Automatic annotation (TrEMBL):
It comes from Pseudonocardia halophobica. InterPro entries: ACX-like_C (IPR049517), ATPase_NBD (IPR043129), Hydant_A_N (IPR008040), Hydantoinase_A (IPR002821), Oxoprolinase-like (IPR045079). Residues 507-684 form the Acetophenone carboxylase-like C-terminal domain. This is 5-oxoprolinase. GO terms for molecular function: 5-oxoprolinase (ATP-hydrolyzing) activity. One of its GO terms (cellular component) is cytosol. It comes from the Bacteria.
Length: 687
């Protein structure tokens, strides 16, 4: 394969790009033809064997695009395997080796509590039980000085004890190893030679950063999901190879970039947000193309809503976070997920009040109106019974059983003491309030007023809720991309290859910056070498962003800012970032650098291409007139095919726009229009 192509092979005429996003309800496929047009397709997910839906969906999408597996030049995949493995607690049997005296690290955690005043809340149980935790006599000082080195005889005995316990994966995380990983590496190599476990990994190989608890937790999560990810990707690669697909499999990772399937097997923790970030990557690119400075990415699927803030075409990032109560220390797109989706179940709490979610009907049985055995009213049922959805979805492939939904709604409304329409409308009001809180979380808590933002609404249900959200929050308007229900897959088509590297560093003055600069140079060289040797890309195509983590001396948290060799300029950049994030800065405090980062990126060829142009024309004729409830009043609402709406024609609500992968609702008092590149803009009517 040619190393000059970011995908590991030369491009040939007639080849297509494929992206697949696996969700809880549907598996979405996007195929881009050589002329730039995109074919989209949806199939039902197969949670027990996700690769079944992937292969089936890709086969059907390629047939619709007039292509075959042999013509695929780029294959990108967003997978929920790692996330679901963690959520369902079905991961590997993991053991932990740590410094003597620190065996209870994962059980003690830190002083943060999930809910400060809720005495019933408990932290998630550690993924490593006490009986699979072993100590080794060794010690490094905080500056990396060796106090006690591990002894070979003790390591021999340790290997025997581990073999007897038969863990699938062993994580070695030793105190202060982020300063010098030599002890960790020595223990790992010894255990591997002794055959102590099928897989042995060092915590510093996963995240070489300070904070022992977070570093250990991240490495343990990586080990916990590793076998599931490795098995899944191996099955998928084998099945695609059997169909003569020449392209490598690229996996979307949590930082918004791609890594090869081989790298994903080794660095499995990097895929835990794989299924969430594809749409954010696409939304950021679209926001940049449309010149929108402040955008809230709003992706609603069957089980959840994923929300992210995008500023000047760049999504927010974080270097540490938490998933299901387990700290994760790694670069990731800053996505806030709430349990609110099309399948969210409506229920009555002990006080008799209407609640919605976070429980979901999922793919099976799904909403009542799907006719698959669902018995509980969901958000999708409410939309259908209020007239926002028609009698079928997916271009007629999924017929809706409105009678069954209406019968179940009548019983549920009776439990609430409401009539049917009040109950259905109440479901939407409750879920709107939940989603609005999520938007405030990523905007107001980041120092941004949502009234200055545009909502980028996508996912199968995003355009159904956009009209309510922009009115609830007073936002500037909403934008719906051309293929909203497949937006995550479309967004991944042009995702860059990216790997992030980090190292400990320390400086509090200009005199110490030379040491930081040398560490950054070494990290940059490591990043380029990794992409060239492991991902087989041309090093000339690699760009490296160099960053530092800094804080005011004495703080327990840090902010990441671009590296600058001038200490005064670096200080000013940090002060400005701190002011924006926290509302104040401290010019008198000492600035401390605690870590350095190198983010190596290879952009996909043609990633800046603009979507196909939408022609101008006359206003379309509605294909149907449907009774739709808005507020307390029903309206005779025209229904249009979105594909029939030309550019520049403004339509006044109320109206419904239908397409294969989603439905757009425009409320009374709002207007919408297509721009010339296919994006639908919705805003309040101007007086």
């Amino acid at each position: 394969m040619s190393p000059t192509s970011p995908d590991g092979h030369a491009r040939r005429a007639g080849q297509v790009r494929v992206a697949v996003d696996t969700g809880g309800t549907f598996t979405d496929v996007a195929v881009r033809r050589p002329d730039g047009s995109v074919e989209v397709w949806k199939v039902s997910s197969s949670p027990q064997a996700p690769d079944d839906a992937v292969v089936r969906g890709v086969k059907e999408a390629l047939e619709r695009a007039g292509a075959d597996f042999g013509s695929v030049e780029r294959f990108v995949h967003g997978t929920t395997v790692a996330t679901n493995t963690l959520l369902t607690r079905t991961g590997a049997r993991v053991g932990l080796v740590t410094t003597a005296g620190f065996a209870d690290m994962l059980h003690i955690g830190h002083q943060s509590r999930p809910a400060l005043y809720d005495l019933s809340v408990r932290r998630a149980a550690p993924l490593v039980p006490h009986e699979l935790t072993w100590e080794v006599t060794e010690r490094l000082a905080a500056d990396g000085a060796v106090l006690v080195a591990p002894a070979e005889a003790e390591l021999d005995r340790l290997a025997e004890r581990i073999r007897a316990a038969a863990p699938q994966v062993v994580v070695v995380s030793l105190l202060n190893a982020y300063v010098d990983p030599a002890h960790e590496q020595r223990v790992v190599e010894h255990l591997r030679r002794a055959g102590a476990a099928p897989s042995v990994l060092a915590a510093t190989a996963v995240t070489p950063e300070m904070r022992e608890y977070e570093r250990t937790s991240t490495a343990v999560v990586s080990g916990y999901v590793q076998p599931a990810i490795a098995d899944y990707l191996e099955r998928l690669e084998t099945r695609l190879a059997e169909r003569a697909m020449p392209a490598r499999v690229w996996v979307m990772q949590s930082n918004g970039g791609l890594l090869g399937a081989g790298s994903a097997r080794e660095h499995s923790v990097r895929t835990v947000l794989s299924g969430l970030v594809g749409g954010v990557v696409g939304a950021a690119r679209w926001a940049s193309q449309l010149g929108l400075p402040r955008v809230v990415s709003f992706d609603i699927g069957g089980t959840s809503t994923d929300i992210a803030l995008i500023r000047d075409g760049v999504p927010g990032e974080m270097t540490s976070g938490e998933l299901e109560g387990y700290p994760l220390r790694m670069p990731a797109v800053d996505v806030h997920t709430i349990g609110a989706g099309g399948g969210s179940i409506a229920w009555r709490d002990a006080g008799g009040s209407l609640r919605v979610g976070p429980q979901s009907a999922g793919a099976r049985p799904g909403p009542v109106c799907y006719g698959r055995g669902g018995e509980q009213i969901t958000v999708t049922d409410a939309h259908a019974l209020l007239g926002r959805l028609g009698s079928s979805l997916l271009g007629g492939r999924l017929a809706l059983d409105l009678d069954a939904a209406r019968e179940r709604l009548a019983a549920f409304a009776g439990e609430l003491g409401l009539d049917e329409e009040e109950a259905a409308a109440g479901v939407l009001r409750v879920i709107t309030a939940t989603m609005a809180r999520g938007v405030r979380k990523v905007s107001i808590e980041r120092g941004i007023d949502p009234r200055d933002c545009v909502l980028m609404a996508f996912g199968g249900a995003g355009p159904l809720h956009a009209t309510d959200l922009i009115r609830e929050l007073g936002m500037k308007g909403a934008v719906v991309p051309p293929h909203p229900g497949i937006a995550s897959a479309v967004g991944m088509l042009d995702a860059p290859v990216r790997h992030d590297f980090a190292a400990a560093a320390s400086a509090t003055s200009a005199a110490e910056l030379d040491t930081v600069a040398r560490t950054l140079e070494e990290l940059t060289a490591d990043a380029i070498r990794f992409l060239e040797q492991r991902e087989r890309v041309d090093p000339a195509l690699v760009t490296v962003d160099r960053l530092v983590d800094a804080r005011y001396l004495g703080q327990s948290y840090a902010l990441t800012v671009p590296w600058q060799a001038d200490f005064a300029a670096l200080r000013k950049a940090f002060d400005n970032a701190h002011l924006e994030r926290y509302g104040f800065d401290d010019p008198d405090a000492v600035l401390e650098i605690v870590a350095v980062r190198a983010s190596a990126v290879v952009e996909a060829p043609g990633a800046g291409d603009v979507p196909a142009t939408v022609a101008e024309g006359a206003p379309p004729e509605p294909v149907d007139i449907r009774s739709v409830l808005f507020g307390a009043q029903r309206h005779a609402c025209p229904v249009y095919r979105r594909d029939d709406l030309p550019a520049g024609v403004e339509l006044a609500g109320p109206l419904v726009l239908e397409q294969l992968d989603s439905t757009v609702v425009v409320a009374p008092g709002q207007v919408c229009h297509h721009d010339t590149v296919g994006f639908l803009h919705i805003h309040e009517e101007r007086p």
